[in-house]
Amino acid sequence: MAQQFRPTSPHLSIWRFTLTMSLSILHRILGVGLYLGTVLFVLWLGAAALGQSQLAAVQGFFGHPIIQIGLFLYTWTLFHHMAGGIKHFIWDVGAGFERTGREAITWATLVFSVLATLLVWALFVWF
């Protein structure tokens, strides 16, 4: 039986990493973070439903600086995924595939997610 030639995918060393590729990988990693952050959100909702003393205990837990950093990153992850979804809606209609458009919408996704996170935390947490 003759062996057939099967083409293989190019190795990663051939491709130059772009911002679009990097944010695509980050988007998948942050999806795991969304699951973990959602557990904290459900904990807070459950404590609020159980009563004031349980809510106060969870609020005290959320007041720890490490947890605050995690909640900040969770907020950024939510906005990043929302902006990524809008980016994919734009791509689904066939727009933004040229190089400049692709880079611009990727930068816009990143900038929007950072600014929206800072705005939400400034309005609802810091002030």
Oligomeric state of shown chains: single chain
List low-confidence stretches. none
What would CATH call the architecture? Answer: Up-down Bundle
CATH class: Mainly Alpha
- As a whole number of angstroms, the C-alpha radius of gyration is 21 Å
What distance separates the N and C termini?
74 Å
Kindly give the count of domains: 1
Mean pLDDT: 89
Q: Please provide the ordered H/E string of secondary-structure elements.
A: HHHH
CATH fold field value: 3 helical TM bundles of succinate and fumarate reductases
Number of helices: 4
CATH H-tier superfamily: Fumarate reductase/succinate dehydrogenase, transmembrane subunit
Largest sheet: none
Strand portion = under 5%
Q: What structural category arises from helix and sheet content?
A: mainly alpha
Helix content: over 70%
Instruction: Label the overall shape.
Output: elongated
User: What is the total tally of β strands?
Assistant: 0
Task: Provide a concise account of the structure shown.
With 127 residues, the protein is mostly helical.
Give structural notes.
The protein has a single domain (20-126), classed as 3 helical TM bundles of succinate and fumarate reductases, CATH 1.20.1300.10. By secondary structure, it is mainly alpha-helical. 78% of the residues lie in helices and 0% in strands.
